[in-house]
Each structure stands twice: as C-alpha cells, then as structure tokens.
Amino acid sequence: MHGEVTCARHHAREGCVLCGRPRDGGESGWSSFTATTARCPTCSHQAVDSQEEARRHIPAVRREMAALGIQLDQRVRVTLVEPDVINLGSPGLCLGRTLQRIEESVTDVLGIEIARGLTATHFGATVAHEIGHAWLAQRGARGLAKPLEEGLCELFSGAWLKRRGTEFARTMRRVALENPDPVYGAGYRMVRDAVVSHGIAVVLDSVCTRSRLP
Fold first, then answer.
1. I need a labelling partner for 126 at 20 to 30 A (CA). Which of 47, 158, 173, 202 fits?
2. Which pLDDT does position 44 carry in this prediction?
3. What is residue 202's three-state secondary structure?
4. Cα–Cα distance between 132 and 151 in angstroms, integer?
C-alpha cells in the first residue's frame, strides 16, 4: 500500500495488519497492534497514538464530511481506545465503533471509539465511517439491513479517501470496494451502484425515510 518493494517469493509468516506488508523475520521496527497482530515500521511511524494527535485530525475529517453533506446535528466525541479493547469479542479486525443508546423511538449517539495506533489515513477513513453511523442514528434511520448500513458507511469512508488524492488512499478505497465480505464489501458495492443509478441525495432520502435503497 505504501509503494514499498518487497520480495514476492519471500515466505512471510505474518504481515502488517494495516497495509498488508509481509514481515521479514530479521527486520526491526515492527510493533504490536493487537495481541495477535502487528504493524510494519511505516504504519507505526505514521500512527495516531494519542488523543492529542487525534484532535489534530478530527476537525478536518468533520469539515470534509460536512462538505459531502454528512453533518451531525449534535457533535459526537471521538475517543481513542486500545485495539485489544475494541476487538474484544469481535470476529474480525475492528478499527472503530459508534456507541448508541436506543430508548423507544429515540437513538442517542453516546460517542465514537477508534482504535489507537492507526495511520492518519486509516484513522480518517474510520472516523468518516463511524460519523456515517452517527449521522444515520441522528436521522432516525433504524432497523437497516446490515449490508445497507455498513455499505453506506463504507461509501462515506470511500468518499473521504477519494478526496485525499494519495496512492495510499486510492489503494485503501480499491481494497474496500473489492472486499469479498458479504456485509462490508458487498454492501459497499450495492450502495455505490444505487448512487450511480439514482444519485446520492435520492439514496440518502430513501434510506432515511424508507430504510431501503430506491
């Protein structure tokens, strides 16, 4: 993803959980991400490791999401948490989550948690995805099919990545679009196709008012 050259014939027992770079057993600079995964030196160097660093990135993500028409009615706090905490009980790698409280017909968004140690690009894309969940909740879009909700949030994340203009961001967006996962990948492609056919405004209106694609 970073444009680094690696040996395709070299057998690597593990790779970077963020960019997929294979690990050479003798290479230094690798660090743990979760208890069972690792980050390469490049991703480690670019990591958003503190709440102070996160605060420097968050306003720009909020502004760019607002420019895309995704603006929260009420500000939601974004907090860094340890990757092992956010992945407790998760079947796959979880980079972020939106905490919600549902009472009768009202959904309160309590906060957004993002895994500590992501690259700035992973961090921004994950915040954009989670802002999507918060935006849907604040508009009363409840009971959405999981591929629809996650696919729409992946669309928001992809739109943010597209505005980065870097090869790394373009690769992340392509990987998300090609993801074979039946919820995230298939959902993303399903929502993207609906936007191509009907436009983003029509799609968002249909999701928020009818809980389905047009």
1. 202
2. 95
3. helix
4. 10
Q: At residue 192, does pLDDT exceed 90?
A: yes
pLDDT of residue 91: 79
Between CA 117 and CA 98 the distance in angstroms is 18
**CA-CA distance, 44 to 21, in Å (whole number)?**
12
Mean pLDDT of 147-155: 98
- Measured CA distances, 91 to 74, 87, 88 (Å): 31, 8, 9
Q: How confident is the model at residue 1 (pLDDT cuts 50, 70, 90)?
A: low
Structure tokens, 120: 């700035």
Burial of 94 (0-12, 13-18, 19+ CB in 10 A): middle
Helices (H) then strands (E): counts for the chain:
8, 7
pLDDT at res. 9: 37
Taking alpha carbons only, the member of 39, 119, 34 closest to residue 85 is 34
DSSP structural state of residue 30: -
Burial of residue 200 (CB within 10 Å: 0-12, 13-18, 19+) is middle
Position 25 confidence tier, pLDDT thresholds 50, 70, 90: confident
Kindly tell me the sign of the dihedral angle through the C-alpha atoms of 138, 141, 142, 143: negative
Q: Could you write out the DSSP letters of every residue in 94-163?
A: --EEEEEEEETTEEEEEEEEEETTEEHHHHHHHHHHHHHHHHHHHTT--S--HHHHHHHHHHHHHHHHHT
